Amino acid sequence: MDLTLKAQRFANEAHHACNQRRKFTGEPYIVHPAAVVVLLQRAKPTPEMVAAAWLHDTVEDTAVTLADIRREFGPTVERYVEMLTDVQPRSYGGERLHRKNANLQHSAQACAEAQTIKLCDLIDNSRSITDYDVSFARHYLVEMARLLAVLSAGEAGLLALARRQCAEAVERLNRRYGNDGWFDTLWQRYEAHLKLDELKTGSAAK
């Protein structure tokens, strides 16, 4: 079976098995990996990149393990999925700020292929984020902006799109609810815990 089709079916089954839904819309979760795959076409991806895009949330959110990914899809796809999997997911517990900064460090060390997929993930997740929970949107957009500062190895066009979309979302929130300096305040809270200039980006060391 074609690698990308196999990954699509595998991801669909994994997310369906745990009845995972999108956070605010309640749609079947597979709509998100599907959107990531569509965005990824801008970067002329390899089949392994497309497979990883389909699978990027399976280890983090379902019963699938990295060993499963390696067995079914090989070491390259496993490597990409590992780089796209949070090292401290929600189930880890603790303060969100600490978890997100740990995951930021992980993303900063990802290879160019994985960073490109991550950009697509961020673009899709932020498309309509300002339409729902305002507090969550503010935190997410600060976290996104910090990620974009370290995803410099990702495809240039997607990086530019992600930066533009993030800036536009921040501006929408400011127009709707006023700008009381929330972005800078939250940024400094994250920065106090982990300074961006301390990170080494794009090493692809893993």
Automatic annotation (TrEMBL):
Record's superkingdom?
Bacteria
Write the protein's name. GTP pyrophosphokinase
Q: Does the keyword Nucleotide-binding apply?
A: no
Gene Ontology molecular function = guanosine-3',5'-bis(diphosphate) 3'-diphosphatase activity; kinase activity
Under Pfam families, the record lists:
HD_4
Ranges of residues in domain HD/PDEase: 25-135
What keywords does the record list, in alphabetical order? Kinase, Transferase
Coiled-coil region(s): none
The species is: Serratia marcescens
